[in-house]
Amino acid sequence: MRLRTSTKRIMRRAYMPYRSRIRSRVVKNYHEVLGMIIAVRRELGVYDISQLLGITEDEVYSTLKPIGSIVNIPSGNTKYINFYHGTAREFITGDPIGEEEDKVFFISDTEGHFLGPRLLRIVNDVIKRNEFGVPTKPPLGDEKKWQHSLSRARPNHIKYAFEHVFNHLDRSLLISQDPNELQREFEEFLARNLFSLFSTVHRTYFYRRSDWDQGDNHRITELMREVHELFDDSACVYEITPWHFYRSSLPFIPSSSLIFEWYGHLSDPIHVFSISGDFAGRLIPLSDDALQAQEAMRARQRELPTSLDEQGRKTLVINYRDEFLDNDVRNGTVTCAALSRDGRHIALGFGSGVIEVADIDDQCTVSRFRGDPLSLPAWIEFVQGRTVCIATEDTDGNISILGHSTRLVRLGPLPSDPYPAVTAVSDNGSFVLRVPRNPEKGCVSVHSFRSFYCSASSTSLQVVLSFAPHDWILSYRSICRRLR
């Protein structure tokens, strides 16, 4: 209590030496400058604070100079403003003490919500002027388009606005049923600039996903939930970068989602398919058994453990090897796939050993082959012809041609490694080319594999040729000529 009384005395001497009240302009600058020093997520310099608050550097200095005994005020912008001791912060953010006129020294907005609208306007204005040269002309999945933008230096105060705008927005106002100015500004940001912001900062600077788990069905709440789900799912598959996002995430969002409604037009113009749910591309039909397996897999994945990262956010703990050993997850996982040359049929191999062939145009499953659940499909290739026929191999080295009146034929131990083999099938299905990949160098090595050509028919499958490592450079067509 003695320390708080002493700090209050310093404040009175600094701002009320000869009068009982402080001028309104001084009060305003005091609350904004001190409020910012208290609420910012990282330390800022005098110039940064003046730019973010829209006041001059002299006003920042004149506000802080009277309390220079408790606040460190650097002379240049390369150094940051901070309190000499934590007790000063505790006093300013604590319960008011003293007389009525002393209440002006206390700040209750420790989250800096007063900064939110200012930072949001800065972000919207910078993006509108495209000061960072963010690509705007599709296709946005081209990595080369982003190199210039990502290499450009950003002023410190602009970086802070982009990285921490979400930290300073009052969420209760954003989802309020009563329209307000912050809500209108934020809706403009969502409609025009959300993905541009994502293109310049890491997704962890957005609101935590848990911040949107409760509340009404406000469009803002629903959109932010979708954004977090999209970012979280993408992060599980690849390192999120702007070009990956436009190329590999946006094309796969449901057409019924708010993200698709507002941003679907920015997706790269590629032809994509989905195995379930409402989707912006074409739907891949699954059998009832496959759909049930997918539901069981998703239910099981929701039970995965979570941990806290360095910033205290809940993060999924994913051990892909252990996860795949779970039967529910394994049975619903697609282990390999192939698209027919005409784009009409697609074959999906599941961790349960089942292979389904679907007709995308007619939206139906045309074939379903059940293999050994302990030997899941490793690769699939379509065999061209009048009927739908596929070539496949399981993890035990059994190669088969599957269609009408076919049976599994064990080929014997084949060279293999942790990565799927490179495969091709001749147009008439007579030959299957299989080339294992080198797991150490990530590509085919002339020193560490043997290649097999397999003669296939409806009743038999046998090795007809293996060739030395130096022969792998021969083209597929020239080898087929040798086999005729």
Written account of the structure:
This protein has about 475 residues and is an alpha+beta fold. It folds into 3 domains: about 1-110, Arc Repressor Mutant, subunit A; about 115-275, no CATH class; about 330-484, Methylamine Dehydrogenase, Chain H (7 Propeller). It is about 35% helix and about 15% strand. The chain has a 4-stranded antiparallel β-sheet. The protein has a 4-stranded antiparallel β-sheet with strand order 14-15-16-17, with helices on one face. Strands 11-12-13 form a 3-stranded antiparallel β-sheet, with no helix packed on it. Helix 6 packs across helix 8.
Strand order of the largest sheet: 7-8-9-10
Structure annotation, total helices: 18
Any idea how many domains?
A: 3
Mean pLDDT: 76
Helix content: 25-40%
Radius of gyration: 31 Å
Largest sheet: number of strands, sense, barrel closure: 4 strands, antiparallel
Low-confidence stretches: 441-459, 468-480
Judging from the principal axes of the Cα atoms, what is the shape?
elongated
How far apart the termini lie comes to 97 Å
Strand content: 15-25%
Number of strands: 17
